[in-house]
Specification:
The chain has 308 residues and is of the alpha/beta class. 43% of the residues lie in helices and 16% in strands.
């Protein structure tokens, strides 16, 4: 039995090595806010680069948070690079603050846009890549489409919202408790005027807390449908049918808003790119199951779009 286990462990190690042998990894600091990892396919001096922008929250370059470990962005990056596409993924600036114990409550949504723009400009200035693409996941979709305008050869949205954040929250509140809709709308109307408010439902304190309101003000000013309609580069919009956070209807809104967009709905894929055959319990548990593999269809859709 020990011999069999040793053999299996050896085989597994060889398999992992083989999967990672098609690229070279290098950690890069773009500026004082942004650290990331560049994967460069071997024997490809003029490769295509895809910049991956993470979802909301303190999400690191691998797609993880303190209580959410799935390595979704790490897997996405490595699989694309194994297929000949250079990738760069980076920690959101809040991650660095948390690690250094210097959390900055003045961070706004516009800071995330600035960070994405800095990453794009950094790699464009290198003049090393034949083409440059941006892949935005969740909140990173909106960040990416704003930063990408007139700068990239293509944009890819994965689970990106088709509605502004205030409309998303109001829609979710209406499904949770219709009584909260009116005061929620009232609170957002005040934020739209650039003013803070204390008039909001107590149940939504995490959304409307004093520290969060400035961030919400800057985020809600952007309408994804209006922004995506201004992009001239080819666009690929992806969403999974098992996404608990972003329904496929929002992906359809994005696709409808652009004349340059193609839409692909991946059956049974959830928000962190895993294929879920079961129900919501399996789906939610998968957010902390890094042993799962990201959707093969997702990788194929992205590579086909980039190499087209």
């Amino acid at each position: 039995m020990k011999a069999i286990l040793s053999y299996l462990l050896l085989f597994f190690s060889i398999a992992v090595f083989a999967q990672e042998s098609n690229f070279i990894a290098k950690d890069i600091a773009i500026n004082k806010y942004i650290d990331g990892t560049l994967l460069t396919p071997k024997n490809n001096d003029k490769s295509i680069l895809a910049i991956i922008i993470a979802d909301s929250g303190p999400t690191d370059r691998n797609g993880n948070q303190n209580f959410q470990q799935n390595n979704a962005l790490k897997q996405l990056s490595e699989q694309l690079s194994n297929k000949g596409i250079a990738t760069f993924r980076y920690d959101k600036r809040i991650v660095k603050h948390i690690r250094n114990r210097t959390v900055d409550n003045t961070i706004t949504f516009d800071d995330f846009i600035s960070d994405a723009t800095s990453v794009i400009d950094h790699f464009k200035s290198k003049n090393k890549y034949s083409k440059l693409y941006v892949i935005g996941h969740g909140q990173g979709s909106l960040i990416g489409m704003i930063a990408s305008k007139d700068k990239v050869d293509g944009f890819i949205s994965i689970a990106g919202s088709g509605l502004s954040i205030d409309r998303v929250i109001i829609d979710q509140v209406s499904k949770m408790d219709s009584v909260l809709v009116a005061p929620t709308k009232r609170a957002f109307e005040t934020l739209k005027k650039g003013k803070t408010t204390k008039d909001y439902p107590i149940a939504l304190g995490s959304i409307f807390s004093k520290d969060v309101q400035p961030f919400m003000m800057s985020w809600m000013q952007y309408d994804p449908q209006k922004i995506i309609s201004t992009l001239n580069a080819p666009i690929l919009i992806l969403n999974g049918t098992k996404d608990l956070l972003v329904p496929v209807e929002e992906a359809k809104l994005l696709a409808k808003a652009s004349n340059n967009a193609s839409l692909s709905i991946i059956d049974n894929m959830n928000h962190v790119f895993f294929i879920i055959e079961g129900k919501e319990l399996e789906n939610s548990k998968s957010y902390n199951e890094p042993f799962r593999k990201v959707s093969e269809s997702l990788i194929n859709e992205i590579t086909s779009f980039i190499f087209k």
